[in-house]
Structure prediction request, 232 residues.
Amino acid sequence: MATEQMLLEQLEGFELDMKWLSQHYDKLKEQYPDQYVAVLAHRVVDHDKDLKSLVARLNEKYQVDSSRIAIKYVTPKKVELIL
Amino acid sequence: MKIAGYWGEFEAPYVSAVLICEILDLRKPVEFLIDTGASRTTILDSDAVRLGIDYGKLQRFEPGTAGIGGIVDTFIIPSPRLLFRTENGFYKEELREVFVLKHVAEEREIEERIRRLPSLLGRDVLNRYGLVLLRSDQLVVLTDEFIGV
Prediction:
């Protein structure tokens, strides 16, 4: 079982990659339109239109480390978020 | 204690935490939109898939919740914890429950919108903290310290 220290390290890496995804969104939406993009250590490691397929591949390839992989759906279509 | 968040997609404030639930054997990070308009902390569809949440193991919240397209199927993660990073290490927040939404989109356009929806950190957590947001200084802070005004 992961210790709290390990979970915190996962969290820190995940958060950095989520920030990276947001910062590079405009470029990524052109490269991978209407797809889910997976990022590990500031690098796109996989992408797919189907999230379940993507997650299954990441779990198989990265196993425990897949937990900390950041994933975001990127699209050139503009959406205003009003919650 | 201070929990630092950040500004992200949609020019909105976010904070990340590890979602822990023993029943689901779940210990994975989630990015939450800080949403003072949401009454409950809620996992949205894309994160539910990424986290590998099995809806079949969860109790349904019968009233449902209002989501995109009307009332949305809603499930309950019981007794979860959120592990936040702080300036001195970590802080663990124990919750009674977290909602998980499952939209059923019949139109492609709606489905695409749902894919972009982030999970929400709602008032069940936010009401326990002071919240400081200042976009110009890239500042997002949750704190249990006194904020004088």
